[in-house]
Amino acid sequence: MRTDTAAARGSGAVRRVLEAELARARARGTTEPRVVDVGGGSGVWAVPFASAGCLVTVVEPNPNALATLHRRAAETGVSGRITVVADDSDSLGANVPAGSADLVLAHGLLEVVDDPAAVVEALAAAVVPGGAVSVLAANRHAAVLQRALAGRIAEASRLLTGADGVLPEEVETLRRRFDTEALRGLLTSAGLEVTVIQGDGVVADSVAPAVDDPDSSWETELSEFEAAAGATPPLRDIASRLHAVARRPA
């Protein structure tokens, strides 16, 4: 299971790319960038973005996740900057006006929805011309490699050759995994221009410092390595997750 610490290690490069997108929005004259986080859960992205001056809409059906989001937002003093839509991704078009968001997030979403192509179409419709869609998705090749290194070769083979990159026992929680080209194709089919595909969690999910030293430079070194490795094929293509940013043509 991915720990919160591992999540923080693996998301640094993602965060930097998203901060650059917010800077682009401000450069277009938007003083308060509008962010829509579809499947935004407990506010891991929404609360920091609201703290940074964004107006954030979170589309999320899980009441437990929303309770945590409300608590985090209240503790941080940004409740007034976050709008909650307690519904699933199918409601996006009904609750978020077309062409209204500077940045739309779909992190950990496309693996579990019924129709990822339809969801991506809705994400693309929500974003302003020149704005961006950010997708973070489970990587098929990472799962293949993990099973193979664990000696579970038959499982690795099924993950590699199966249509959706999942095993039967995973279907209730994960319907599909993506590889780089499948993710790129999904986004371009919706009329988006892919500007970034990077790996998230090349090694961060599975490594730990050799010595527990709070003054060690190990975390910094790991973050720097992740940023470089995540941008470098083939290391990018075996990261735990693939992060893509795709822009709606201006």
Features:
disordered N terminus; 250 residues; seven-stranded mixed β-sheet; alpha/beta
Whole-number radius of gyration? 18 Å
Q: Can you tell me the overall shape?
A: globular
Number of DSSP helices?
10
The biggest sheet, with number of strands, parallel, antiparallel or mixed sense and barrel status, is: 7 strands, mixed
- Which strand-content bin applies to the residues? 15-25%
Q: What is the string of helix and strand elements? A: HHEHEHEHEHEHHHEHE
Please report the distance between the alpha carbons of the first and last residues.
40 Å
* Class from secondary-structure proportions: alpha/beta
Which regions contain 5 or more consecutive residues with pLDDT less than 50? Answer: 1-10
User: What is the β-strand count?
Assistant: 7
Overall pLDDT metric: 92
Q: What proportion of the residues is helical, as a percent range?
A: 40-55%
Strand order of the largest sheet: 3-2-1-4-5-7-6
Structure report:
The chain has 250 residues and is α/β, with parallel strands linked by helices. It is built from ten helices and seven strands. It has a seven-stranded mixed sheet with strand order 3-2-1-4-5-7-6, sandwiched between helices. Helix 3 (46-51) links the parallel strand 1 and strand 2.
Overview in brief:
This protein is α/β, with parallel strands linked by helices. It has helices at 4-10, 12-27, 46-51, 63-76, 92-95, 116-126, 140-149, 153-161, 180-189, 218-230; strands spanning 34-38, 55-59, 82-85, 101-107, 127-138, 193-200, 241-247. 40% of the residues are buried.
